[in-house]
Amino acid sequence: MGPPYALLPACLLLVKGRKDSILTVAAVISLEKIWSFTMKSPCCKHEMVIQTDPKNTEYVIITGAEKKTEDFDVEDAETLLLPADEDRDKLVDPMYRLEHQEEDLRKKKEAEPVLVRLQRLSDSRHSDDYALNRALRDHLRAIQ
């Protein structure tokens, strides 16, 4: 069994895109290869060594760098907030769903006009790809 797909292709992409990087197999643990790649920083020429961790499906920085973790707010990132474990358990319960079905339908009706408006806007912007492409080419030719 090879390394997880999340790890090996990223390593190879990093190594192939950089001329000064070296990809090696650091270890083999129960038929899983631990990949290690070494590269130099483009700004200060310090050497960085990064290894794959198949058990946790992530990278481990050995030397030359620090892991950067960023916290984000759901609204700032414009993503959906996933329900907590207890909320997921409630959604499976048929009585809970029945009790909250009317509220869910009301929320759906409130959001529907916004979704329809967004769909119409998207359709109007992307309805004729050829005409948009031609207008862009004409504009770029006029600039040159």
From TrEMBL:
Q: What domain of life?
A: Eukaryota
User: Which GO annotations describe the biological process of this protein?
Assistant: mRNA splicing, via spliceosome
Looking up InterPro entries in the UniProt record yields: Saf4/Yju2
Question: Looking at the Swiss-Prot or TrEMBL record, what is one Pfam family this protein matches?
Answer: Saf4_Yju2
User: Which Gene Ontology terms of cellular component type are present?
Assistant: post-mRNA release spliceosomal complex; U2-type spliceosomal complex
PANTHER family xref list: SPLICING FACTOR YJU2 (PTHR12111), SPLICING FACTOR YJU2B-RELATED (PTHR12111:SF2)
Regarding protein family, the annotation reads:
Belongs to the CWC16 family.
Report what the protein is called: Uncharacterized protein
Which organism's genome codes for this protein? Answer: Panicum miliaceum
